[in-house]
Amino acid sequence: MVVFLKRNNRSSDRKVDNIAIEAVIRCAIKTPQLFLGVEVQGAHGLLAKDGQGSASPYVELHFDHQKFTTTVKEKDLDPYWNETFYFNISDPNNLSNLTLDAYVYNRTKGINSKSFMGKVHINGTSFVPYSDAVVFHYPLEKKSIFSRVKGELGLKVFVTDNPSIMASNPLPQMDTSSHGRKESKDSRNTFHHLPNSNFVPQPQFPVQQPYVAAMNQPQQPYVYGVEEMRNQNVNQMQMQSQLQGQPKVVRMYSGSSSQPTEFALKETSPFLGGGQVIGGRVVTRDNRRASTYDLVEPMQFLFVRVVKAQDLPSMDVTGSLDPYVEVRVGNYKGITQHFSKTSSPEWNTVFAFSRERMQATVLDVVVKDKDVVKDDFVGVVHVNLHDIPTRVPPDSPLAPEWYRLEDKKGEKKKGELMLAVWIGTQADEAFPDAFLVDQATSSVDSAVSSMYTRSKVYHSPRLWYVRVNVIEVQDLVWGEKTRFPDVYVKVQINNQVLKTRSVQARNANALWNEDMMLVAAEPFEDHLILTIEDRVGPNKEEILGKVFIPLNRVERRADDRIIHSRWFNLQDPSDNDVDEKMKKKDKFATKLHLRVCLDGGYHVLDESTQYSSDLRPTAKQLWKPSIGILELGILNAGALHPMKTRDGRGTTDAYCVAKYGHKWVRTRTVIDSLTPKFNEQYTWEVYDPSTVLTVGVFDNSQLQNDSNSKDVRIGKIRIRISTLETGRVYTHSYPLLVLHPSGVKKMGELHLAIRFSSTSMLNMMYMYSKPLLPKMHYVRPLTVVQLEMLRHQAVQIVAMRLSRAEPPLRREIVEFMTDANSHLWSMRRSKANFFRLMSVFNGVFAVSKWFGEVCMWKTPVTTVLVHVLFVMLVSFPELILPTVFLYMFLIGLWNYWFRAQYPPHMNTRLSYADGVNPDELDEEFDTFPTSRNPDIVRHRYDRLRSVAGRIQSVVGDIASQGERLQGLLSWRDPRATLIFMVFCLVAAFVLYATPFQVLVILSGFYVMRHPRFRHRLPSAVLSFFRRLPARTDSML
User: Fold this and answer.
1) Fewer beta carbons within 10 Å, N or C terminal of the chain?
2) What domain of life does the UniProt record list for this protein's source (predicted)?
């Protein structure tokens, strides 16, 4: 409810009445007031300001024209306040655009002045609900380049509508002297229904809606309000229908000179909602502004909403009626569910008919009575399709109307049916929930089809790292007193199990002090279970006690501050009832010393860092504002391979899945088509340009109602955001390439339209100077083994959550999209990586070859010019670096004219997929552990030993060269060391007496000397080095 009350400054009585009315309305509607809570915990490491090595700091908080001040801490460079303040939020819809500023000042006694010590600036996009808030220590920032600041300020910032949940100090008096808000005479008071802060507000449109954001309206993580979506008008849809028959312009790119033509990328110029795409720009035939959904082709549908019926006549002898509705357009029909024994049913079901497939001119809506033998006819409504209106969002939904039923002769009879019929596009909000009648087939159950074919938007759960530091255990109690227990601690969350090392407790105490990391997902409904076990014998353990810790009670942190340890009493090992143990808490002698926390400063990797779609930390208060908007239009797929047989012919039920960040989207399934048209548009916020969008195509295997069948992968593409030009529309047809045990295959093509729009070019450029991963990955880095193990657990958690959605995003889809098995051994990948390494050094090899030709005087003119340039650079060494950088600038300028005009795509030659051995492919597709027969495994093991032997030889040769360098002064070969020492002494005197530039010129001339002065035998220096001893003769 929104109420506006005008103020009249001419009458004070009228003003008082308005204020009273305002208070009454606020109390009547019980609208919760939204507050921004700020807990000022403390600061440390501040800069001394009083000239005596100390300071008297206090904090000023500024937010939304309000100011609060903490108490002054005298003579303290590490002050601790623990004071909480609440700011009124005047406009929750504008919360993401507000900022919180915290200034630290030093109070000078006597003259009552203050000096600046640092500030903290927090954007509104970082504000989180109270349940997600943690104390974070912000580094103090400078006010200007001449300021001197040092230290950190600990703040806890959250949004709440119930300040009583915090045990805080009373609100201080508001100081409005410098931040007062001036109101005009015509200002209005606005009351809002504000959301509860205990949950994250979501945009108020259906979660299935494919078009989730406007092109120029970036979604903020916490938007307290809804931005209405817009659509194209009727004239644009008519223009689109006229232009669909025109040919599309296609250009082909192979990606590299070695990429086969059949796997090439094709650039197209389709006619989309905003006009034709030419050269990356959407060109319209008039001056109308492009609509929100300008990256897809409008598809017109006939929508029929069957709402309800009333006063239906009874058809059975008993006087009962089991009504349902059959909607028919030509040969297509849709059927609602039937209701038992009612004459006033309510269906509220929407049917959608593709207009391009419609050949009839009349819509028939028939009401029937469900019967065992034959359904009885109740009545019918005929609607002329030429009289149906066209609805264009954001127009309000079409109001349904009552239609009188007719019998078969066309005469009016008892009963009415409420219908709404209109023409719209896939952008209509009724489309995601509508039953697509023309996609139903006789061999597919309509109920199953409606459940598993709709488009959906999924959000993967927010993942946290759980850090468990097992310190020690005291007062152990074990059964066999004749021996000392060999104990270890097992840490478990669901299927994740980690163990400490075994320690022999000789005095009933054991010390480990080991850190272990696990993965947990919100909402935290699981328990952290720690079990102390005694290794009695081989494969035999005895449980000495357990500790159950609810994850929702574990302390959270966003930085590397120290978490206080706690002692936990062990529970009775014979009882596994977690809830009962949390209630009665039996007394037990043994205590376990732990330090447990949820680390929110890390990014929980569920993808490889090479092509991750999100790099933000878990804690929301560390999130930065978005730098742009990514828009994806999934147009159509073509030339798909049949993935199944139905009615004696090959067919495919294709759908697409796109993943970027936490947001997964799934298009509707187009049934029984090898050239499906999707035309669905989606939008994501971009926080880092070094991220990758992944789009996969799958065949839906759930339409046969077989839970054991898996969705078959058709292909996948990746698009790196940093390779996209800002504002350009990329319309390409991507080949869908899949590696099978028989080799690489092209399964079809996927037609996409992509646009990346930057909200701030300066912020995006600034991102290139920031670390790729959050700060905690560098402050307290995790090992490669830990990251791989945690990534595997994260993928399992995401797959489990998404597989429980409706319709489910199955496990095989999540694993394929995230490349969950990319860490497994593959001979093909190993060769591909080796050739990638060689291609990196191709430039070095080319320069070495050219310099060798210069030294051999293959082209005397070039060699003379190189000599002249060499002398100039040695004579003027200050020109060396400018020449190098200018040369690189010119190379970049030259390459600009030959830059790629398309985003990179899958390359079979780079992946070494077109020349791989069949046995190596079979090995790559083998399960882990292997399922092949012993002879094949033995052959592959011998082959791996051969490859490893060559690698071993190369590593040994590199080690030998290093040992020879060490042997120069080690006196292992006394004569060689003596020769080298004499050489060093002579070289010292020569270098001291001779100008350095002369030595460099002479050395250069010697290296580039004419071939007649060269010998085929190795030089004396190289021969001397090769004679130095290595340690290979000391190896077994």
Assistant:
1) C
2) Eukaryota
Picking from 199, 203, 208, the residue whose alpha carbon sits closest to that of residue 664 is 208
Q: What are phi and psi of 542, to 5 degrees?
A: -120, 130
Edge-to-edge strands of the sheet including 332-335?
Answer: 332-335, 323-329, 362-369, 376-384, 401-406, 412-425, 300-310, 346-354, 435-436
- 10 Å CB burial of residue 173 (0-12, 13-18, 19+) is exposed
Quote the percentage of the chain above a pLDDT of 70.
83
196, 198, 200, 203 alpha-carbon torsion, rounded to 10°: -20
* Placement of tokens 């300071």 in the chain: 55
d(CA 197, CA 157): 13
Burial class for 16, CB neighbours closer than 10 Å (0-12, 13-18, 19+): exposed
**Distance of alpha carbon 402 from the chain centroid:** 48
C-alpha count within 13 angstroms, C-beta hemisphere, residue 151: 25
d(CA 215, CA 662): 20
For 826, the token pair is 């593959």
Positive or negative: CA dihedral 369, 375, 379, 380:
positive
Which residues, 6+ apart, have CB-to-CB distance to 578 below 8 Å?
527, 529, 548
Phi and psi torsions of 141, nearest 5° = -105, 160
Closest CA to 614 of 434, 400, 773: 773
Amino acid identity at 80: Y
Reported as half-sphere exposure (CB side, CA atoms, 13 A), residue 207 has a value of 11
Residue pair 136/154 in contact (Cβ under 8 Å)? The answer is yes
Q: Which of 454, 421, 401 is nearest to 355 (CA)?
A: 421
Average pLDDT of 831-860? 88
Would you say 912 and 835 are in contact if contact means Cβ atoms under 8 Å apart? yes
Is the CB of residue 195 less than 8 Å from the CB of residue 164?
A: no
**Residue 555's pLDDT is what?**
92
Rounded-to-integer distance, Cα 854 and Cα 868, Å: 13
Residue 59: count of CB within 10 angstroms of its CB: 28
pLDDT at 448: 57
The pLDDT value given to residue 94: 86
Structure confidence by residue, pLDDT tens digits, 523-578: 898 899 999 999 888 888 888 889 999 999 999 999 888 999 999 988 877 666 55
| CA distances (Å), origin 482, targets 168, 476, 487, 506, 535 | 56, 14, 15, 11, 14
983-1004: b (≥16 Cβ within 10 Å) or e? eeeeeeeeeeeeeeeeebbeeb
- Residues paired with residue 921 on neighbouring β-strands, in sequence order: none
- One-letter identity of residue 716: K
Joined tokens for residue 963: 């040992």
- Give the whole-angstrom CA distance, residue 947 versus residue 945: 6
pLDDT in tens, 390-407: 887 778 888 999 999 998
Q: Report which of 23, 219, 208, 20 is spatially closest to residue 683, judged by C-alpha positions.
A: 219
Residues 884-892: what's their mean pLDDT? Answer: 90
**Residue 173 pLDDT class (50, 70, 90 cuts):** very low
Query: Cα angle at 108 between 103 and 112, to 5 degrees?
Result: 95
**Kind plus residue range of the DSSP H or E element containing 1006:** helix 996-1007
State the sign of the Cα–Cα–Cα–Cα dihedral 685, 689, 691, 694: positive
pTM, entire model: 0.76
The CA distance from 498 to 491, in Å, is 5
Q: What is the DSSP letter of 474?
A: E
Polymer length of the chain: 1036
**Three-state DSSP state, 1002:** helix
| 3-class DSSP state of 324 | strand
The position carrying tokens 């808000």 is 181
Structure confidence by residue, pLDDT tens digits, 701-744: 887 766 678 899 999 999 999 999 998 999 999 999 988 888 88
